[in-house]
Amino acid sequence: MTSNTDNKDRIATPSDTPQLQAFREVVESRRSVRRFTETPIPDDVLADCLRLAMLAPNSSNLQPWAFYVIDSAESRQQAVKNCMNQNAAKTSARLIAVIARTDIWHDHAQQILREYPDKPVPKKVKDYYTKVVTMDFLRGPANVISAAKWGATQVVRRVKGPIKSPYYTFEDTKNWATNNTALAAQNLMLALRAHGFDSCPMGGFDEPAMKRLLGLNDDQHIVMMIGAGERERADNGVYNTQFRFDQDQFVHYV
């Protein structure tokens, strides 16, 4: 693995470890690759990458994601078309739809209690998933519960101080699911790089058409499409030189 950044001259510090050096190499060599070779990604490699993806941090361990690996020739042909025939989709060895789900929080909360590794399940854990999580997401008919939650939250802020805002609307829940799923997508791309493959996250696709192809409902949202494979090095697999704005422009100490 070779880095495509200008970090080769970084001065080693006492805190540098083999793990840190390996991590840096994975992150710094990851690029959005637009053209791939015909080298396949073995099933066991992809399975491990997906396993690592699902180790991403996520809110309350509710894991509101799904991954659709589009392998059949007919589905792949249509999926590539839905990705506007981008080279990153057309030449990829594997094409993956990363899905955020807003319909699964309740089922997953119950599954956590069934599969919780420490038995008996502590009471505070039961209370959290049966009461706190439920109240966080429930909206009720015509959002009547959301209105009550909003009023209660304002009272708590005035009387007791800071409190996390619950999810009042469908868009709140969608943002929650999308944020968590994006973390898993990044894990997936870094895992592919660590295995010696590359990827390209794509936001340019026809979402309604892709949802019809995959049989998704209104509570399943495509966060991104990911094309993955071995980087084409002789034919402009990476289109541009990587650069970022200065770190001081974005990092603030308060």
UniProtKB/TrEMBL annotation:
Q: Which domain of life is it from?
A: Bacteria
Keyword list (alphabetical) reads: Oxidoreductase
InterPro entries on file: Nitroreductase, Nitroreductase-like
Q: Which Pfam family name is an example for this entry?
A: Nitroreductase
Domain Nitroreductase span(s) in chain numbering: 28-229
- Entry-linked CDD domains: MhqN-like (cd02137)
Q: Which family does it belong to?
A: Belongs to the nitroreductase family.
Protein name as it appears in the record: Nitroreductase family protein
Q: What is the lineage of its organism?
A: Bacteria, Pseudomonadati, Pseudomonadota, Gammaproteobacteria, Moraxellales
